[in-house]
Amino acid sequence: MLKTLDRYIIRQFLGTFFFILVLIMAIAVVFDISEKTEDFAKTSASVYEIVVDYYLNFIIYYSNLFSGLLIFIAVLLFTSRLAGRSEVIAMLSSGVSFPRFVQPFFIAATILTALSLYVNIFLLPHANRTRLAFEKAHIWSTYKLEENNVLREIAPGEIVYFESVDMARQTGYRFSLERWENGQLRSKLLSDRAMYDSTKGSWAVYDYMIRYIPEDHGPLAMDAAGLPLPATPEVMPRERIRQGARLDTVIPLKPSDLGQRLAIAQAMDRKEIAAFIKAEKARGGSTVAYYEVEQKQRTSYPFATYVFTLMGVGIASRKVRGGTGVHLVLGVVLCLLYVFTMKMTTVAATNSAFNPTLAVWIPNIIFGIIGAWIYWKAPK
């Protein structure tokens, strides 16, 4: 059963956090409105769509994104205020152990971690889907695929190649489709350009040529003794070539499979992102690591709440000259180092084949160790 001290600390911790969160989100919305005023003036979106579809989900997304750092600031502010008024010294002098003093902080951190996990896994993907759909319809410019020489395996043994792709026109240039069986090329379609018809879900290829390569059956005749005779050019299967101006072909591939904004990963729920990663690996996509990092961060980032809480209590419980200001400076430095470490590891995962799971958990492990050291050094 929670005692008066526990209820007081939990109430102050959560109250400070949500106050800072509301304040920061209000500032973020004001800045975003000032930045997008011209876009909203040009768009056909109603005020209801702007407020509900965009800004409500904007607040959900950025509240969750900044929650860990805001929790750290809340712990620093509240605990520093207790230390500045000598309340921490009074609690410890009255027989309350330091671990017992820290306990309600971690109860509050557990509440916030559970809330963040729920938002990350269940609520946020749907909120992002609505927000990103609004941005796509009213704010974003047409997506441009920067990658050239795009290669995708659309099915076992079927490989598609584009030298370049114009996403605005849904057209790929220098297109080829190869079909392989048992490690041998069976047919190859070559075309100057392939255009996607979104209504039919098919690709129209222009100025095409299809080369059909028959299977090499080996010996084709037997001698009188029943021994195989070697194949001769006259009886060997021959290649066939087909040409034409236009051919409509159904290929299990959409322009979005060739490339899309990486932000789309934020709109996928856990089943969708797992299925997408599996399919992207099969196609040989180059953005698999980014989606894996997004998938793993949904679990790792909420647990950073415990790391920030441990560091915040250890830092701010010490009464120092300069008070809250010194604590905030040290806290901001640690926040920047955490963000820098997270950025380094995720970039390594997306660009250097570093394990995505390790990439998202290493900052928590490193700063968890730092937090444990700060806690151990804190006055008892």
Q: Report the biggest beta sheet as strand number plus sense, adding barrel if it closes.
A: 6 strands, antiparallel
Number of domains: 2
Instruction: State the helicity in percent bands.
Output: 55-70%
Order of helices and strands: HHHHEEEEEEEEHHHHH
Helix/sheet category: alpha+beta
Average pLDDT over all residues: 84
Radius of gyration: 30 Å
Overall form:
elongated
Written account of the structure:
- By secondary structure, this protein is an alpha+beta fold.
- It folds into 2 domains: 223 residues, no CATH class; 108 residues, no CATH class.
- Helices cover 58% and strands 17% of the residues.
- The longest helix is centred in the N-terminal third of the chain and has 41 residues.
Question: Summed up, what is this model?
Answer:
With 380 residues, this protein is an alpha+beta fold.
Task: Looking at this protein, list some descriptive labels.
alpha+beta, 9 helices, 58% helix, two-stranded antiparallel ribbon, elongated, 2 domains, 380 residues, single chain
Topology:
Elements: H1 4-42, H2 47-84, H3 87-93, H4 98-138, E1 150-155, E2 158-166, E3 171-181, E4 184-197, E5 202-212, E6 221-222, E7 228-229, E8 240-249, H5 255-258, H6 270-283, H7 288-316, H8 324-351, H9 356-377
Antiparallel strand pairs: 1-2, 2-3, 3-4, 4-5, 5-8, 6-7
Helix pairs in contact: 1-2, 1-4, 2-4, 2-7, 2-8, 4-7, 6-7, 7-8, 7-9, 8-9
